[in-house]
Design goal:
The protein is 39% helix and 16% strand. It has 10 helices and 10 strands. It has helices spanning 15-24, 57-70, 88-107, 125-145, 175-184, 197-200, 208-212, 229-235, 255-264, 284-299, and strands at 2-6, 29-33, 73-78, 112-115, 149-153, 190-194, 217-222, 224-227, 243-246, 270-273. Strand 1, helix 1 and strand 2 form a beta-alpha-beta unit. The protein is globular.
């Protein structure tokens, strides 16, 4: 397995600065944020390290040359909108940009695009599956035709400020739902960007699904979660704020068991650090320190 990180935590750096620092710091791969240029809709969105809208032939060549020069590969291009939003104009906009990201991945010889299924948060899971059946087959076909795999991250996207409980903004939050997703669209190009941090706070076993979905794990995120059991006991599961994002090793995930399970199924892709720990965000240097700490910790359990 290789180790990398999601670039969205470092919007202050240009793509070239990002690649050179990652190479000098001993990372193998980068998961590159490819949002449309413009203000973010939420934290960690709106970061454009590769502008897929204006990706000319010359830019493709320069990106490949830069990566080769620095010995860094791209594990995936990342764009995580709410494709199934209730607003049809938004749905069309997000889908069109996702297709541009898929096109860019094809041109850059990147095999994976990370994204969300999305969800109309005001509708039931059943109603959202009907939307999924309408919207997603054509997106998956588009990716198939360009030989790009879609890795769906399993974050419920349940944040009170923009996606209130119980809806959330991403349908793909549990193994039961993944099973149905893959039965509905049985494509070898549709799989998971598997993130254990989104399972542990839902009280879901984050090890067992690795074995069941071993052929669907295209990419993985390394982010930890710390559960405040005192607060959980006080407010209950609907309170939401009883868990916080942490760097790997600073939360409640057993990374030795997690990585052992990935080795067991023969996963040979990336472990991509997704830094969203507010304790390590005060400066660019602090965020770099966080990524280096995470890499050093995860390497303890990697061959």
């Amino acid at each position: 397995m290789k180790i990398g990180f999601m670039s969205a935590c470092l919007p202050e750096l240009t793509f070239e600065e990002l690649v050179r620092w990652a190479s000098q710091s001993g990372f193998d791969m980068l998961e590159v944020a490819c949002w449309p240029a413009g203000p973010p809709e939420r934290r960690y969105a709106g970061v454009t390290h590769i502008d897929v809208v204006n990706l000319t032939g010359d830019k493709v060549i320069s990106i490949k040359d830069l990566l080769n020069e620095n010995g860094i590969a791209l594990s995936s291009l990342g764009y995580y909108p709410n494709i199934l939003t209730a607003e049809e104009k938004g749905r069309e906009y997000y889908t069109n940009h996702l297709k541009k990201v898929i096109d860019a991945a094809n041109r850059l010889d990147v095999k994976v695009v990370g994204t969300f299924i999305g969800r109309d948060m005001y509708k039931s899971v059943e109603d959202n599956f009907r939307l999924y059946e309408e919207v997603w087959p054509s997106i998956v076909k588009y990716a198939e035709e360009r030989d790009v795999k879609l890795a769906i991250e399993n974050c419920p996207m349940q944040y009170p400020e923009h996606s209130p409980w119980p809806g959330g903004a991403n349908l793909a939050f549990s193994p039961m739902i993944w099973r149905r997703m893959f039965e509905t669209i049985p494509s070898k190009y549709l799989g998971l960007n598997y993130d254990p941090s989104h399972l542990i706070w839902q009280q879901i076993d984050y090890i067992a699904p690795i074995r069941e979905f071993k052929d669907k794990i295209f990419h993985t995120h390394a982010k930890d979660t710390k559960i405040d059991y005192r607060l959980l006991n006080d407010v209950g599961v609907f309170g939401y704020y009883w868990h916080v994002d942490r760097l790997p090793g600073l939360g409640d995930i057993d990374w030795r068991r997690y990585l052992a399970a990935l080795y067991e199924i023969g996963y040979d892709g990336v472990i991509s650090i997704e830094h969203e720990d507010r304790n390590w965000e005060s400066s660019v240097e602090k965020k770099k320190e966080a990524l280096l700490f995470s890499k050093k910790y995860l390497k303890l359990f990697m061959l």
